[in-house]
Every structure is written in structure tokens, then in C-alpha cells.
Fold these 2 entries.
Entry 1:
Amino acid sequence: MANKSDFIGSLAKGLKVIEAFNAEHARLSIADVAEATGFDRATSRRCLLTLHELGYAAYDGKFFTLTPRVLRLGMGALASLPLAQVVQPWLDQLSDRIGQSTSVSILDGTEIVYLARAAQRRVMSIGLMPGSRLPAHCTSMGRVLLAALPEEEARALIDTSDLTPRTVQSVTEPERIMERLAAARTDGYAVIDQEVEVGLRSIAVPLYNAHGHVVAALNTGVAAVQSEASDLAALYLEPLKRVQDGLRRVLR
Amino acid sequence: MANKSDFIGSLAKGLKVIEAFNAEHARLSIADVAEATGFDRATSRRCLLTLHELGYAAYDGKFFTLTPRVLRLGMGALASLPLAQVVQPWLDQLSDRIGQSTSVSILDGTEIVYLARAAQRRVMSIGLMPGSRLPAHCTSMGRVLLAALPEEEARALIDTSDLTPRTVQSVTEPERIMERLAAARTDGYAVIDQEVEVGLRSIAVPLYNAHGHVVAALNTGVAAVQSEASDLAALYLEPLKRVQDGLRRVLR
DNA sequence: ATTTTTCTGTTCGCATGGCGAACAAATCCG
DNA sequence: CGGATTTGTTCGCCATGCGAACAGAAAAAT
């Protein structure tokens, strides 16, 4: 930004207030928002009242919750990503053929964002839908996306990730994660075994565009009771690579 | 809002700029945004540059597109709706049993917003995901949700709806739509036959909470080549009502 | 290739919007 | 019931955000 005077502080504050709401904090008071954002209580209050006035938040006299109207804010981004529309039929077909859930995601900072999904039976307790996020370092799709970056860039992202273990199997040492990325780079795919959630294993491959650049990741996830980690490549790598090859001609 | 001075105009402007992006207008210039929002060009420019600075928009030197980060703005709303989490397993089961896609949505103004979905084979060309919207007046779920409102309230929403026909079968006269709502009220369900999209028929029922209030709608959609509209009730009403009954005890 | 039109970047003066402190009242909690 | 916490409100202040105006760049038309 050329000039500091091109920046609108009030808008920035309001967006930070919206981001203060999440699954764990769905219903917040003025004091809650002031604490979560670090803004003055009166500032937080004006932001919340503005959101309420515009229909983005409901207010019961003390607590605020976001309303479905805020979904309009995000739809512009999903809509502007042609990738999701293009890959959906491929995911549906792949999911039908292999009998497992499949997804496509992209990297956004230290997280992956789901763009498209074809779901079979639920194997994860958290519902994953376009827009959902998971940490990149401990997901198969995240690992192939990080592996596609220059090594220093990947390391910087790992260093700023929240490496808090999510299961007892979570890999949390940066050096070991970098090793897994190197392996993913060499193998052309990544497998995770109950690192992001107990009971879930998944395998992912990168998706390339016609120029050979990695633009997304494709995975399938299976219940741990259903397949050993060591079997995932034998079972699913070939169909995933077939979709990878098919999409390479289509994506730009 | 008690005081006009509790309203933050700059925040309101910025949110309107974000909403200017949609599927048809995914990539906008400063002039485009000024035109779409009615704001001064310099104001539009500052909003866009602020969104870019915060990571919500990408900028190529002339055009802006929203980035996946704006999805964080909407996720707080979905997360704060326990309804989506509660109904998902019921949708998955129902979808498996009847072999068709099923969805749950709520009313937001003149539109329905999808909260949850269990998809089988794609019958619609537009991908519907949580957060997607369709006009209420010409969808089966929209009709049962409008039918649950006091009649004057429903009429006011019909009067402010965009009644542009989407297919040759679209019902667009307010009186005829009100008749369809009355029928839905009497029957306890609604069927639409290719009004929202050629090739799609669907049937929906309202979802009640333990207090008997309508809180959402549940539907299944089928390809027109697969079932006649007159057969939908015979084929699917019973399983839909079974889920309706089951959820009545669970929803609050 | 040139001219015209449209768009963007930038500056700047101005008005007021948004800020936060302070106080009173309401609510919550022990 | 008293103390602690939170919310509503007012208000003075000043920095923020606005929009006009101008120059330059880019795009479109000739």
C-alpha cells in the first residue's frame, strides 16, 4: 500500500470483530469481543451494533451471534474460484468409484481451505465443507501443498504454525515435519495416520495446472478401522493420480 | 440502535464493497466497485486497498478478487448454528436410504440459505453447499418456510422478491405464489417442478423444534427424468416426515 | 499511430466520524 | 446484600476518512 492514508482503520477493526466469532465462541458479549480483539470496549460495542444494524449479527440485549447474512461476505470468494466448479464432477466420480470421501483444498497461510468435497460415509466428527479449514502441517493435503513451496517458505510457515498436538500421533517437531515434506516431495504424495483426528487416515496428491504449477491438493480420507496406513498408497494412489492427470489438462 | 452515533459508516461501506463480489462479478476494478456500490471512487479504492492489505483481496494492479480469507468472516455464522451439526447425520442417513440428495436450509430475507447437505449424484448444475442461496419463492424449502410465516409477512417478502422467471415453468405472479404457500400450509409439504432449474424437481417439509416452531426446511431433489412431480409425495414424503418427527424431539 | 475516453494514483483541505475516558445504571456473582 | 463486572450513555477531541481536483496511465476508438 503506497500510502498509510489509503488504509481504513474502522473497516479493519470491524472485520477483526467478525473474525472473533468461531465454533468455540459463537455467542459473545461486548466485553468478550473487547477482550478477544484488544479493542476498547466502546469501539467493540459500536462495531457490534453496526453489524446488528446491518443484519450481520443478532443481539439479545447482552450477547451477539452472527447471522447467515455474513455468509454473503464469503461467497464472493468461493464464487470467484473457478477451481471448485471445475473439480466437483471429478470428485463426485472419483468418490463413487473408490467408495470414499474425496476433497480438494488450497493453502491459505498455515492452513488449508476446503474448496470442494464429495462425501461418502462420515469418517470425521467435524463436518468439512467448502470454506472449512484445517492446519496444513498435519494434513495430507497440507503436506503436499507445503512440499510444493520453496523449502525456506515452507519452513517459515511451519515455524509460524500452531503445532499443538491434536492426537497422540501428531508430529510436532519442525524438523520431523520438514522430513515428511521432503518425503512428500520425493514420493509425489503424502499419507497421514491419525495426526489430525483419531480414527482418520488420508492420502493426498498435488493438482497441477497446464503449466505444471501446483494449484491445489486432492485427497481421500478413510476410517482407521478400514485401512492400514501402509495400504493407502496401494489402494488409492492410482485413482488419485488418474484424476491428477486428467485435471492437469483442464486447470489453468 | 439507540444512537446514530453508534453506527460506523466506514465499516458498513467496507462490507458493502465485499458484497459487491459474486459469481457474476468475481473480478472487479475500482470503477466497477464504485458503480456497484454507489460510493465515491476514492472511497471504493480505500476500501479495496484495505481489504488487500488485510489479505481479504488479491490485487493485480487493476483488478481485485476476494481471497479464501474472507471465508473466515462467514464461518463464524455457520459454526454458531448448532442446527447444521445436529441435522447432518440425519441427512446422511436419509440420503443413503432414499438414494437422493437431501438438504436443510433456513430463510434469510427473500432467500433460503443452505445449512447442510447430503449429496448423491448431482442433479443441479449449480453446486449447492452450506452458505449457498436460492430465492425462497420458487424452491420447495422456501415455500414451506414462507408458509410458516404470518400471511402478511409472507406477502411482504414475495412483494420484495426478484420474481424474474428462471425457467418457463417458473410461477411469477404474487397471487399464484400465495396460493402455492396456502397449499403448502394445508398439505404440510411443498413440491416444485422445474421452477428454479430445468430438470430439477423437489419436495420439502418444515422442520419443527420441541416447541412446535418451524426452524428450518428439509428437502430432497430429484432429476425430472427420474420422477414425475405427482409421484414425489408418494415416493418421498414418508421418509421426509420420519426425519421431521425424529428431529422435532432434538431441535430447540 | 494518434486522439479520445476512461481509469487510476495522488494530494490536500475539511468536516465529522469514531475514539476513548468518565460516570451512572444495570446485571451478575459470591 | 454488597461488591464486582458489564453495559449504556455522554461528550470533547483529533485523527480519520471523505471527496474534489488534477496529472498521468491505460484502454478504446478512429
Note: Chain B touches chain A through 67 residues (CB under 8 Å).
Entry 2:
Amino acid sequence: MDIVLSKNEEDYLKALFQITVESNMGVAGTNQLALNLCVSPASVNGMIKKLRSKKLVKSERYGKLEMTSQGKTIAIQLVRKHRLWETFLYQYLDFSWDEVHEVAEQLEHIKSDKLIKQLNSFLGNPDSDPHGDPIPDETGNFSKKSKKNLAQIEEGKSCTVVSVKDASVAFLQMVSKLGIGLQTEIMVKNHHEFDASRTLLIGEQEHQVSLKFAENVFVKERV
Amino acid sequence: MDIVLSKNEEDYLKALFQITVESNMGVAGTNQLALNLCVSPASVNGMIKKLRSKKLVKSERYGKLEMTSQGKTIAIQLVRKHRLWETFLYQYLDFSWDEVHEVAEQLEHIKSDKLIKQLNSFLGNPDSDPHGDPIPDETGNFSKKSKKNLAQIEEGKSCTVVSVKDASVAFLQMVSKLGIGLQTEIMVKNHHEFDASRTLLIGEQEHQVSLKFAENVFVKERV
DNA sequence: AATATTTATTAGGCGAACCTAACTTATTAT
DNA sequence: ATAATAAGTTAGGTTCGCCTAATAAATATT
């Protein structure tokens, strides 16, 4: 019943899942996956052949790659493990936002159902990781995405910066000039009707930012 | 500076360390190691060749296997990681005494110095694992062995059973008849001068056991 | 000392996962 | 429609860790 996959097989499934979800047609190409995994297209081809025979990927020769529901289930559980571990590292072991990923990448391959079940309850059934990304439950359901952009935060509420959209140098310069970094706490004082701009309270300082700016900053609401 | 070893190389070092320590001459044979790792002598030979070239094992062709101090250091750090993880699983994730090993066997191969440093402080710098075995510190020092046999426990002190010596059926039957199992708490009420026998308080019941019996039960002192 | 036995090593192969180079099929542009 | 480009596949080769079978060295026995 319980299929045992190698670390590599798992990595392929996870990457494939990510790509297929992003390309919202649920498909991906060989080269795309190769690029993502820093591996040659030939290697991908071989692995896909194997995953196909294990009924985790469905696709015909020369056709686009698509995952079976079983393949997706496995990938989602890997995401779950990854994000639970990130949460643990962040909350209990004093890892910073940007350090968690690398270690979680290793931890997610540990094989033990009990481990992940217990880790989950130890963490109090969290529904999002330190980056604000949602943690799917045991059955694979992502509740609601708890990662929001700054523009979605209501007046009077506070939030913590978890990431910024990869954007122009100008944007990043502006970000740092405002004193915004990862973990920065921001209180949204006002929404202004006229131009949808926002007044933010960052530390002791008030700043006025445009809607466009706010949409490029990702935050996690304070609970 | 920091040598990166494969999971297999690490497993060989750990097993070799265990064997060489047990054979208190600090040496081991190829076949012995092969037996321990459930692998053919030929495989061991190949790996030893590699470890030798990495200066982790010192031994000449056809000679007994011996570890270099660097090899030992690495092995001890693996033991440290293993036991810290066991402690974590046991104390925080509700794993039982006999479930921890298998998962710790996987977790000990995670590469991250910070992880183990933080895990250690999270656990409060423990000096022994749930089996009562000592946890070496960052520099590789085993403080004192905190695993004791029941006969070493002073009058009036309490302890918890962590293991029993592999022994005769008769002994094991006696153990279970007294209501002793893993995790059982035992209070040592008296040492009797006459025959060195002990009076134990197990739960509500008092029992009289011989010195020989007490020496075959391993316990961890209550802190 | 000569032989037998145990222990260590080499030789030759297999599977997983990687690579490069060459090829085929599909798509796009002229 | 045909040629050029992009995308997917195959072939042949590498490394790592494993195997079995055959050999060489060390140790034990007569």
C-alpha cells in the first residue's frame, strides 16, 4: 500500500507538482523540469519513465507531463512535511526566515508517518509556514491561502513581511529605504479613497505608499 | 574544512566506531564490520579503501581496521546527533522507547550544524538519551555514563527502567512477573547487608530481589 | 615445516542517477 | 510547403554502492 520512493523520485514529484500547479493547465515540459532541477533533459526523461511505470505521472511519448492523482497526493504530502519542518525550525530552533528552507529540504525526506503526525500536533496544527504559505492537512487540503499582499490588509490591522515580489531594482531600493525587510512589522493605518494609497506605520515612522507598491509586498496577518 | 560524507560513509564510520570501541583494542576486522552492516566483505573493503583515502580510517593492507582521530570525531558527532534526536522524539513527540531508534537513524544524517546546536539547547543540553546512554558534547566528550544498573542505585532513590540485559528466558519471565517493563519506575527501599539483596517498590507493591537480578536491569536515575 | 582454515582483497557485474552527444518529433516562421 | 528551431528521446559513458566468485595473505593446526 505504502509506496516507498527514493529521495530523488520525491524531488522530481515535488518539482513537477510545483511547475504543473503554476502553469495552471496542470502540465509541464521535460526541459522545464530539467531546468528546475538543474539536471539534463535526458535525466528527466529517464526518471519520468520510471514515475510513469509507477503510475505517478501520466503522459504519452512526446506529450506534456501530467501527474496522476496519486502522484499529486504524494507531492502535497511532501509540501506538508516541508512546511511543517520550516515552522518547527522557525518557531523552536531559532532559525531565521531564510535559513529554514535548506534544512527543511532534507528533513522532508524522513520516512515516518508518526513523526509528521506528532510534529503537526506539537506545532498546534499550524495552517501556514513562516513564509505565510499554507500547510495542507493530512488529507491534502489547503485551507485558504494565508499569504496576502499588503494591499489586502484592512485598516487598523498589523502584519509581518514575509517576502517581496521579484521586481525592479527601483522597487527593491524603495523597499529598503522604507526600512522594510523580512519580518518587519507593518501596521496599516489608513486606506485613502482618492488614490487607494496607504498610510503605514513602520516602527515609529509613518509612510505613505501607493497601491501598486503595496501589492508587491507579501505579508502574513498577525494572529 | 568541513568534509561532506555520504549517508553510507557515515554509516560505515558509525558502525566501525561502535565495533572498535567494544573490542577495547580499538580495532576491528573486515568481516566483522560486514556482518554488522549486513553487507558483503567485498563491499566493506571498497568502502574502507575510500575512507582510508579520506584519512578517516588508518590501516594497512591485510591489517586490522583502526580509525583516525578525525574519523572518531565524526563518528562521535553522529552518535551525538542520533541521541539528541532520540531525546527529542521521546520527550516532545510522544515516541516510545522502542520507536525512537529507527527514525533517529534517518535524522542523524541531516546536515546542518546550526540544527544540532539549536536542538541541543532546545532540549536543555541533555546528557543522556531515553535509553540512558550518554550524549557526547560538541567537543566529543562523554561526561559520565548515566546508564546504571539497578544494583548501583542508592537506598531511597528512584529510577526508570531503560533496558534489560539479554539473558535467559527465566530472567525475562521473572522480570515480567515483577511487573517490570521499559519505563517502569522503581524505588529502591533498602539494601540488605546480609545477601546484598534489595527491596524495591514497584507501583504499590514491594518486592525482594537478588543482587544478581538487580545487576541485569538497566535504569536511568530520576533527576 | 606443511597443510588447512580463516580473513582480506581483487575482478567483474548490476542498478540508480547523473552526464554529453546525437537523434527524432513537434512547432513555428518564411 | 518547406526550412529552421525547439522540445523530447535514445545511446553510450561515469560514479557510487552493492553483489558473487575467485584469489592472496595471515593465522592455526597437525
Note: Residues 6, 8, 39-40, 42-43, 46-47, 50, 61-62 of chain B lie near DNA strand D (CB under 10 Å from a C1').
